[in-house]
Fold this protein.
Amino acid sequence: MNREKFISLAIGTTITVGTTSYLFSDKSNLLRADMKTTEDKNKNLKSDEKEILFLASLAPSGHNTQPWFVQYLEPLHWIIGNDKNKWLPAVDPTQRETILSIGTFMQNLEYAAGAFGYSCDWNLLAKTNQDEQVMEVNLIKKESKNAFDITKIKNRRTVRSNFLSDVLKKEDIEYLVNSEPEFIHYLPVTSKESQYIDEQTIIANRIQSDRNPAQQELAEWIRFSSKDAKKYSDGLTTATMEIEGFSGWVVRNFYSKNNVMKQDFRERGIDNVKKQVSESAGWILITSKDDSVATLLETGRKMQRLFLKVRERNIAIHPMTQILEESSTKQQLNPAMGISENIQFILRVGYLKNYPQPVSLRRPVDWFIRS
Ligand SMILES: Cc1cc2nc3c(=O)[nH]c(=O)nc-3n(C[C@H](O)[C@H](O)[C@H](O)COP(=O)(O)O)c2cc1C
């Protein structure tokens, strides 16, 4: 007994941990930097190709499902595919977010290809959000490399906490929003539209966390232990959820899918959302003229172009999509915003004091290449 520590968990149970078991426990959050890049077993892939696809895969996706695959036709000639095993039917039944995520992947791919001296020739194949083959791409060698700085792709990340509440400066709005004036709307924290999104985000999160299929789906994509995080290299880890220190240790070692279904876990999720929406410079909405596959892909690309620009201005982006995922909140959104276009992204934005390094994991290229 004297060598044992008693730990009272927030879930209300007391667990006993011996010193030895602590030493062998899952002691720290697994980070992207902890992952070694695996050897390329795919002999067809040239080093440029592998690097371009790796950079493409650093794109964001809902629950970090990474819903893309790449069919390798021949060198520099691929088909970007939609992997239906990575869909989120409970929160994204029409695969709208899946296609937006594939759009972010395409934007990264095009920027990365440019940095290696290729331009992309795209040919849209998909007619619906469910078609497996989405886009054919040919990489064509060009005379000069473009100047796109790939460290921007490597350093981009979603940040969810510690936003400052100052409104965006005029010159930052100019740089981020007005450079692509169509379809990007900034709602400063002082506006009534921003307050409306704050309130509705809390309401939508409550509705969603009461919906068991949505909560179950979330549980499926949480990688509680570092072992699982490493094994799947996707989903939401304690590091991506920004659960640090002692709480992170508890979650990594003692939590499982069952905990996610418990009432206290759901309540803590809502408390977290309340805190998050109370800190921001406001919201950015990205809209589109319609919901076609081509438009959704272009909208995903637009969001990624924006996302790759914010870090240099010390601005964080946190997509909070629940209003669009719950029908009652979605229905009221357009009239409340006075916007007639289709709202595709709701992004909380804010300045940060310290910009953290990216931590979310990615599957190695070999895992998403198909021949
Ligand atoms: C279409 C889409 C929807 C998203 N929705 C949410 C969301 O509702 N809440 C959230 O915390 N993050 C959301 N994200 C961010 C992802 O969780 C994040 O991109 C992913 O975990 C990978 O992390 P990274 O962006 O730091 O690379 C969304 C991302 C995309 C592309």
